[in-house]
Amino acid sequence: MKQFPLRIWLYFACDCLVLVxxxxxxxxxxxxxxxxxxxxxxxxxxxxxxxxxxxxxxxLERGDIVLRWRxxxxxxxxxxxxxxxISSIGxxxxxxxxxxxxxxxxxxxxxxFYPSLRFVIITYFVGLGIWGVGMYxxxxx
Length: 141
What we know:
- 43% of the residues lie in helices and 28% in strands.
- The protein is of the alpha+beta class.
């Protein structure tokens, strides 16, 4: 049997540690929340371009401009993704928005970021495959 230097064993241990951390991260992928609508930047404001779940949106509609999320100003559309990440699926969040000339408020229920487990499963197997290739290269270098 071939003797491996300590450096190889350290690489192997680090790779195994990273693999374990990735496996422990899978539940947070499954439980990630998002808004029930999609926004894009129009004239420097987050503009609702699509409603994914009508029931979860409350009175928010396509064409509205999101102003506040739980009292926090929403300057860019990416802020909504960040702000919804700190909540759970099913949480209701007060949203202030502009509908035409009126400023209104509605409660929005957060929905799952990944509607099916397909992404998580594919990511799992691709990660295992890449880890396996790395181990093969490390073992037979």
